[in-house]
Structure formats: C-alpha cells, structure tokens
Write a structure and sequence with these properties.
The complex is a heterodimer of chains A (about 350) and B (about 210). Chain A contains 12 helices and 13 strands. Chain A has about 350 residues and is of the alpha+beta class. Chain A has 2 domains: about 120 residues, 60s Ribosomal Protein L30, Chain: A (2-Layer Sandwich); about 170 residues, Alpha-Beta Complex (Phosphoribosyl-aminoimidazole Synthetase, Chain A, domain 2), CATH 3.90.650.10. In chain A, helix 8 runs parallel beside helix 10. Chain A is globular, with a radius of gyration of 19 Å. The chains are: A alpha+beta (about 350), B alpha/beta (about 210). Chain B: It comes from Anaerosacchariphilus hominis.
Chain lengths: ~350, ~210
C-alpha cells in the first residue's frame, strides 16, 4: 500500500520478522495462475494455511511445508535449532507427524564452514527430536546466511487441523509465550538481559510436538502456529471473515521483560506492518501500549494457537501445563460481530 | 535542535537514535529524524504519541522521510515516570503524518460533463486547488481517462510533482496506461493495480471524486 517502500521492506532483524508483509504477499499470490483443481489437494494456498496437505489414500495424507530465514541470534548452533524448530512447527500446526526433512541453506563461501556445520548440527538435532529423518538438502552461495527446512509429514485426512475451521463457543489456547520478536530486537541493541534471552531461546527451540500430540486427544476445531504475522495476524486468519472472538489480555502468556522493552519502543518493523495489516480488525479495551505491541509482535518459532471445543478447553489447558508448557486459555470464539477481535485487559509483565 | 540521521537503519535503530537525541536535549527542544521507510516513520510516531511529544512527518523524497518531534517543558517530568498508558485504542491508529486519509479518485482527463475543452481547464484547476489545501489528501488515484493526467503532455504535471514531493501518493492504474498506450509516458507517481485501488478506497476516511 505504501508504494515503493513496501516492495523492498525485508526487516533485517532475522527470524520471522524477516517475513514479507501479509498485505503485500496476498497481492502477488492472488495473481498466480491456479491450474486445474486437484481434489486430493486438501489444503492448498487458497486457505492461507500453515502447510499443504495432499491425500494419497483414504487414510493417509502428506503434509508439506517449507520455512527458512536469516539468523536472529549470534550463535550458529542455536540459530540452526530455532530455524528447524520453526520449520517443523507447521507440520504440528496441521496435526501431523514429522517424517522427513531437507535442509535449505544460503551461505557465503568466504565464511568459516564450521559455522555452517554448527547451524546444520542444530537443525539435524531438532529433526531427530521430532522423530523425523534428515534426507538431504540444497545449498547455495549467497551474501547472507539463511537456513531452514522443507519438511514432509503425515496426517490422517479426517484429522487435519485447518487454521480457519473454528466454531463459536471454542476456546482459544496459546501454547507459548509472546514477545520473542521484541526480545530479539532489544538484544540486537544490547538491551535484553541474558536471562530473558535464554528464556526466549528455550521457547524458540521447544518443538510444538508435545503440544500437538496432547491436543490431538481433544476436540480441536482449528489450529495454527503463531509466527511472523504475530498473535493477532494469525488469529485474524483463524477468524476467516465468518467468526469473531474475545481475547483476555491478562491471560496471554508473555515474557515479562518484553513488556519493558515494548514500553521503550524497541519494536520491529514487522510488528508495525502487522499492526497496519490487521489493526483495523482489532479493538483494545482497558489495555496498554505494551499489550498491543506484544499481540502484534512477530514470533519466531512461536506456539500453537488452538481453537478447541469449549467443554474440552480446561482439561486441555491443564494437561498442556502439566507437560511443562506455558499454555493458557486466552479467549473465546463467538459468532461474527461488528468487531472481529476484541482484546480486553493488559498483559502482566514488568514495566 | 538535534538532527538524527537514521537513513539505512532498520527498526528499532531509528527509535534508539532518536531516544538518545532526546536524552541529549535534556529538556524541551526539537529532534528531527531522517529515515528511509514509512514503517520507521510509524514506529517513531507511535513513540512520540505515547510520550506525549508533538510530532509531524513528511516525505522529502523517494526513500527519505523526516520526522520532527517537539519535546515540551511539561513532558519533561513525565519522562521520568512511567510511559503514558494509552486511553483507548481509537487514538492509536498510527497515522504517519498530518495528511488525512483522504483519497482523491480521478477517472477522467476532464472534469464534469459538457464542453470537453472546459472540462480540461477545470480538471487542471482542480488539481492546482488540491495543492493549496490545508490538509493534503493521502493518495490520488488516476484511472481510465484520468491516466492521461500523470503522463507526458499533461498540464498538471508540475502540480502533481509538487503534491508528490509533499508526501501525497500518486497512483495510476497500469491497465489503463496500457490501454491508452501510455505505459512509457508516465511522468509522476507510480503504477498500481486494481487491488491497491480497491484497498485504498476501502481504507479511505473520505473519497473525493471531481
């Protein structure tokens, strides 16, 4: 919408903050030729979902996804783990199981190859932890480092979690804390504490496998993972133009220190782009500036956002928490009202 | 006044540099920050609004924006305390500058119905009059015959360039340029498509159609 500026924006912050803006992307995608429809393509990019799903038999479908980005932390091994965790997450967001993964690497030839080795080590460890096999990859010489995975998983065709199939009465559950975008940004200018960064890295390297496997035992109606478009951006896609929801700001799990940095305006460009893109669908009541910023904050390797049957939500929340996840019920899906997303209350954090 | 050059800096560096400059002021004064993208303008504006500074911004040239913050005496005290909590969200719309979200949609190279010669004079006068408004429109859209006005031989080029220099976005429909064989003749603003036109109109607070 802003003419030339938009076209080149590519936040140098790394991680999911490097995602192209959603508004820009949809203009481009809408113009692509679609070709004849294939009835076995159960989820394609018409639905803006996390991954593509292709049915190969009555009881098996393949889930395919691809994700890569520039580093958001200095340590190559940690970066490898984060990038892989993030890429694997799309399979879990569809309710699938990880089977194989391929490395995607951009790396400057002039750089120390041991760094690349560390990145790949981190990545392969996460693929193993996910129960998958690293089956190959592709690398090119480039000016900047980028790394990620193309992942293949399996899912039963009747048990696919779309991101937009929620129902009124569902509760919204978020399984990781928000604020890693702000924390990484604060870290880049030397403001984040060591402890907070350690917490953020621990979160970004936690597979969504456990959350996905636990949730699979409950009536999940919709699921997505919270990444570059931030909590509100992904929630907006989940509402699909036919639902609305209420969000309890105080219930949203966050990194307390991110509140402090938000109040110091250590904000990403991507967060502002998210605000520009979905701000019109959201109202805030009794809220705070930091709450808004955290909800728009682009997440790298964020948690699952689940719309789960109202009767199951409490149990699921309890079981996720018992498994050590900071999961919380953060809101409720309603019939469509005049405002799509209503956020009430403030996040709890240090100011 | 302190000037901050944040051209080429990614967020949050422009904010960090500006905050340092405000600290240097040590009281009231003006800080002027140069940035190269509109998102940085919005992030700076957001900070100024939260802190209660008077803020304005304008586009100086392609990839060059100026954000001016006035730090008053009264906000000095507030700086030491907690950042001001925003009242409600309606005020928090991140309008990057003083341009209202008014969109002018020009669909013909003439204005009104009747003698086309008169229509040409009127549209030229109308575009000139736009340059004189206190609050400039945010965007001017040109489509169908309107596409002639942003191309070679238009009598309004100078006025449109002046508007563009003041930050008004000038967009001309690409399909229309193509249809009239004007694709190589565009002189001001950028080429756009129907998605952007529809989105711009849908997002406008007011649409003016001469």
């Amino acid at each position: 919408m802003n003419g030339k500026e938009e076209k080149i924006v590519f936040c140098k912050g790394g991680g999911c903050t490097a995602k192209l803006g959603a508004g820009l992307l949809s203009h481009v995608l809408e113009k692509l030729p679609k070709g004849p429809a294939d009835e076995n393509l159960l989820v394609g990019y018409d639905s803006k979902d996390d991954a593509a799903v292709y049915r190969i038999s009555e009881d098996a479908a393949v889930v395919q996804t691809l994700d890569f980005f520039p580093p958001m932390v200095d340590d190559p091994y940690t970066f490898g783990k984060i990038a892989a965790t993030n890429a694997l997450s799309d399979i879990y967001a569809m309710g699938g199981q990880v089977k194989t993964a391929l490395n995607i690497v951009c790396f400057p030839e002039s750089m120390d190859l041991n760094i690349l080795g560390e990145i790949l080590r981190g990545g392969s460890e996460k693929v193993l932890e996910a129960g998958g096999t690293l089956a190959g990859g592709h690398s090119i010489n480039d000016t900047d480092v980028k790394y990620g995975l193309s992942v293949m998983g399996m899912v039963h065709p009747d048990q696919i979690w779309s991101n937009n199939s929620g129902q009124p009465g569902d509760r919204l559950i978020l399984t990781k804390r928000l604020g890693v975008g702000i924390l990484c940004t604060a870290n880049r200018v030397g403001e984040a504490s060591k402890e907070a960064m350690e917490q953020a890295v621990a979160s970004m390297t936690t597979l969504n496998r456990k959350a996905s496997e636990i949730a699979a035992r409950y009536r999940v109606h919709a699921c997505t993972d919270v990444t570059g478009f931030g909590f509100l951006g992904h929630l907006h896609e989940m509402m699909d133009g036919r639902l609305s929801c209420r969000v309890d700001g105080a219930a949203v799990p966050i990194f307390p220190e991110a509140v402090h940095h938000a109040n110091e305006f250590l904000l990403t460009a991507a967060g502002q782009k998210n605000r520009n893109h979905v701000g019109a669908y959201v109202t805030f009541e009794d809220s705070s500036f930091a709450t808004e910023e955290l909800l728009f904050d682009p997440q790298t390797s964020g948690g699952l956002l689940l719309a789960v049957d109202g009767k199951d939500a409490k149990e699921l929340e309890k079981e996720l928490q018992k498994a050590g996840l900071p999961a919380k019920i953060v809101g409720e899906v309603t019939e469509k009202t005049d405002m799509e997303i209503r956020v009430r209350g403030k996040v709890n954090g240090m100011t | 006044m302190i000037q901050v050059n944040a051209l080429g800096d990614a967020c949050p560096i422009p904010v960090v540099k500006t905050k340092k400059a405000i600290e240097q002021l040590g009281g009231s004064g003006v800080v002027e920050t140069l940035v190269d993208n509109e998102i940085a303008v919005q992030n700076l504006t957001k900070m100024a609004n939260q802190k209660g500074y008077k803020v304005s911004s304008r586009k100086l040239a392609e990839k060059q924006y100026q954000v001016v913050m006035e730090i008053g005496e009264d906000v000095k005290e507030e700086l030491k305390t907690e950042p001001k909590a925003p009242e409600t969200v309606e005020s928090e719309t991140c309008i990057p500058d003083a341009r209202a979200n008014t969109v002018v949609a020009i669909s013909s190279a003439t204005m009104g119905e009747g003698d086309p010669e008169l229509g040409k004079i009127l549209i030229k006068g109308f575009i000139y009059a736009l340059t004189q408004l206190d609050t400039l429109p945010k965007t001017i859209l040109f489509y169908n015959g309107g596409a002639y006005l942003t191309c070679e031989e238009s009598a309004s080029l100078e006025d449109l360039k002046s508007l563009e220099a003041q930050g008004v976005q000038i967009l001309t429909c690409g399909t229309c340029l193509n249809h009239y064989g004007l694709t190589d003749k565009l002189q001001v603003g950028e080429v756009t498509n129907m998605y952007v036109i529809a989105e711009t109109m849908a997002g406008a607070s007011k649409i003016i159609k001469p």
